[in-house]
Amino acid sequence: MDYETKPTNRHELRLYAKLFRSICGFSQEEPIDPVALLDRLPELEGFDDVRYEVVYNDALPNNVPAQCEKNDDGYLIQIKESVYKGAYEKKTGGYRMHIIHEIMHPFADKLGFKPIFSRRLTKEIPPYMSLEWIVMALAGEVMMPYESTEGMTEKEIMQVYGVSESAAKKRLTY
Fold first, then answer.
1. Domain boundaries, given as residue ranges, for the chain
2. Residue 139 vs residues 9, 57, 143, 144: alpha-carbon distances, Å
3. pLDDT tens across 16-35, in order?
4. What are the angstrom distances between the C-alpha of 112 and each of 5, 6, 7, 109, 126?
5. What's the rounded Cα separation, in Å, for the pair 64 and 144?
6. What is the layout of strands, in order, in the sheet containing 50-55?
7. In the chain, N or C terminus with fewer CB closer than 10 Å?
8. Is 100:87 a contact under the CB 8 Å cutoff?
């Protein structure tokens, strides 16, 4: 499900990605292992209320590989067992992106990207105001830093940053 939120742009998202990498203690160039990051989240400033759990594959709908829910205690990221395993074994770059995407939900929320409940005549939300687009773009910027991937080929991005072909292709378009 998507929600309208405050507007942003790619330039701002790149700055937020740098901030996230800094908070986590990563350089602006090194690859990130989202699975290892999950265990570190509670130790990081501002992420002590983020937890995760690996759930049976049938615990989430077929088209939902992972999800993040906000509750009274903070945020709970639920990840399908097959997705976690594929990301852990570094066999599927898409699974790694699913996990970092869910990690970006609490980060975006803490940055003030909160759902705006308003009436719209159309159901379509412009990307720059779409919470899901913002989180997806932020995940891409965190996993594949713009300056570090400039001049790289799709295959190089996939190999260095452990992302899917789809993610690497998308990175090359912006």
1. 10-172
2. 14, 23, 6, 8
3. 999 999 999 999 999 999 99
4. 9, 8, 11, 5, 18
5. 23
6. 50-55, 74-80, 66-71
7. N
8. no
CA distance linking residue 119 with residue 28, whole number of Å: 40
Tokens of 15: 């700055």
Considering the chain, what is the average pLDDT of its residues? 94
Report the half-sphere exposure of 132 (CA within 13 A, side-chain side).
8
DSSP state of 89: T
User: How far is the C-alpha of 84 from the C-alpha of 122, rounded, in Å?
Assistant: 36
CB 17 within 8 A of CB 143: no
| DSSP secondary structure letter of residue 130 | B
First to last CA, the chain: 25
Alpha helices (runs of H) in 50-92, residue ranges in sequence order: 81-88
pTM of the model as a whole: 0.93
